[in-house]
Amino acid sequence: MLEFDQVSKSYAGGFVALDRVSFKLEKGEMAFLTGHSGAGKSTLLKLISLIERPSVGRVLINDVDLSRIRRPLIPYVRRDIGIIFQNHRLLMNHTVFDNVALPLVIEGFSGKDMVKRVHAALDKVGLLDKVRCLPQTLSGGEQQRVGIARAVVNKPPLLLADEPTGNLDPDLSKDIMRVFEAFNQVGVSVLVATHDLGLVARMKYRTLTLKQGKMINDGLLQYQEDPL
Amino acid sequence: MSILFSGRVSSGATTRKVGVGRRFFMFWVNHVRQALFSLGELWRTPSASILTIGVLGVSLTLPATLHLLVKNVQQVSDSFTQAAEISLFIREGVSDTQISSLHKILQADQDIARVTHISKQQALAEFAQVSGFGSALNYLTDNPLPDVLLILPKNTSADSARQLMARLSKERIVEFGKLDIDWLTRLDAIVSLLRQAVLIIAVLLLGAVLLIIGNTIRLSIMSKKDEIEVMKLVGATDAFIQRPFLYSGIWYGVFGGLLAFLIVETMLWWLQGAIVSVTSLYESEFHLMALSMAEFLSLMLLAILLGLSGSYLSVRRHISAIEPTGP
C-alpha cells in the first residue's frame, strides 16, 4: 500500500537526509522505523504526510504518486493518514473532546454521529472519563493517548507515529504500543518511528532501520546481537 | 471522498443520503454556528477586540459626520430658493393692462413656478415703511419706483435661472432683469468643495480601517500559528481555516459600524441645543437632519464590507504561508 521507490531527499546546503530509500508496507502491516536521531526518520514520515517533497524518487500510496498531488489537494490526502506526534500537539485551550473531534469537524461531521465516533476513539485509548478535561490537566501518557485518539477518530487506513513513546516511562510505552497493535489487528497499516530499541526488539515486528539516510536493515531486529 | 483509498467513505455529509432542503438548512446552521463561535473568540480576547472596534468606529465616525454636515449645509442652501428669484423691472409709462397681460403670459410659462406683481404704489408704501424716510417721501411729486414682476423659476439652479432671466429680459415692456445669483453660485461651489473633501477624507480613513483590520487579523493568525499547523496536519483546507477569521472581520465591521452610529447620534444630540439657539437668531426654520435608515444601513454595510475585505486580504496572505514543519 505504501511504497518508497529510490527516494532521496536533500536539503539546501547539501545535507542528504534520505539516500535512495526503497521499501514497501503492505495493507494491514505494522512496522517500526528506527535509527539515531538525524538518521532520517522524521524526514521519511514528512514525505508520507506531504510536509516535504522528495528530491528524487517516488512515494506511492495505493499506486498514487504523491508528487502528482497538487497543493490544494494535500489536505484530502492527510485525511487518509492518521499522524501521531512526539509532542502530541494538542490544542491546549480546547477540551479533550474538541481535540479529538477536530478531524471530524474538518470533514463535515456533526451532531450525534460525531459524538459517537469521538467517544469510540477515546474508549479505545481508555480515556472516556476525561472527555471534558483540558489537556493540561492530563498526564504525559494521557496526552499522548488523546493524540492517538485524534489520529484514529476518522478511521484512517494508514497510521504514522513519530516517537510516540519519546517522553514516557517503559510501562506507559508498552501501553501505547498495545494500542497501536490493537489498531493494526483491525486492518490499519501502522508505521511507528522510534529509537526505543528494547521495545522494538520485544515487539517482534518488521523493523526498518535508517542510518545516515540509508536503509541498513529491513526485517526483525536482533537487539541482543546487534546493538547498532 | 478519498483520493488515495477508493471506496473509503469518510466525509460526514456523504455517509447518509440527505435531502437538498436539509443540506441547504444545515449549510446555514453551520455558518451561523461558526459566526457565533467567532463572536465568542472576540469575547475571549476583549482588549484587542475593543481596541480594533474602537479604531474602526472612530474612523467611520468622521466620514459619517462630514456627510451629515454636507447634507445639512445642502438643506440650508436649498431653503434659499428665493435667492434665485428674478426681478423684472418694467419700463416707465407702460399701462397696467400690458403689465397684467404679461403677468398672465408668464404665469402660463412652464419654466416659471410663481409670478408676483409689485405695483409702483405697493413698492413705495413698502419702501416708506422699511426705509424709515416715512413722511419725507410725501414731498415727492411722482412715484420714482418702477413696477416689478417677481419670478420664481421652477428650476432654481444658477445656470437655468440665468438663462430664464436672459429670455425674460427680451420682453418688450421689460426694462431689465436682475438676478442675485453670485452668492448662490459661491455657496454651491463651497458645498461641492466640501463634498469632495469629505470624499477624500473618507477614502483615506477607510483605507486606514482596511489596514488596521488586516493587521488585527494578522496578529490573531500569528497567535494561533500552532493551532493552524495542527489543523493543516489533520487535513483542514485553507478555506476551512480562514473562515473563522473572516467571520471575525465581519463582527469587527458590525460592532465598528454600530459604534460609529452611536457616536454620531450622541454628537447630534449634544449639538442639537446649541444649533437651535444659533438658528433661532437667524429666524430660520432649520432642523438638524440625523442619519436616515438608508444611510444607517449603508454605514453598516460599508463597515461590514471593510471588515470582511480587511480580514480577507490578511487571511489570503498569511494562512497559506503557515506550513506545518513536521510531525
Poorly predicted ranges of chain B: 12-16
Percent range for β-strand residues of chain A: 25-35%
Named CATH topology of chain A = Rossmann fold
Radius of gyration of chain B: 34 Å
Strand order of the largest sheet of chain A: 6-7-8-3-9-10
How far is the N terminus from the C terminus of chain B? 24 Å
Distance between the termini of chain A: 29 Å
Based on secondary structure, the structural category of chain A is: alpha/beta
Tally the helices of chain A.
7
Explain what this protein looks like in three dimensions.
The complex is a heterodimer of chains A (228) and B (327). Chain A is α/β, with parallel strands linked by helices. Helix content of chain A is 32%, strand content 25%. Chain A has a six-stranded mixed beta sheet, with helices on both faces. In chain A, helix 3 (96-106) packs across helix 4. Chain A is globular and about 45 Å long. In chain A, 46% of the residues are buried. Chain B is α+β, with helices and mostly antiparallel strands and 327 residues long. Chain B folds into two domains: 34-79 and 186-319, no CATH class; 86-179, Alpha-Beta Plaits (2-Layer Sandwich), CATH 3.30.70.3040. Chain B has helices at residues 20-44, 46-79, 96-108, 120-131, 158-169, 182-223, 225-233, 238-281, 293-319; strands at residues 86-90, 112-118, 148-153, 174-179. In chain B, helix 2 (46-79) packs antiparallel against helix 6, helix 6 runs antiparallel to helix 8 and helix 6 runs parallel beside helix 9. The radius of gyration of chain B is 34 Å and the shape is elongated. Chain A binds chain B through residues 42, 45-46, 49, 51, 61-62, 64, 69, 72-73, 75-80, 83-86, 89-91, 102-104, 106-110, 113-114, 150-151, 154-155, 157, 160, 162, and chain B through 1-6, 8, 10-13, 15, 26, 30, 226-227, 229-238, 240, 323-327.
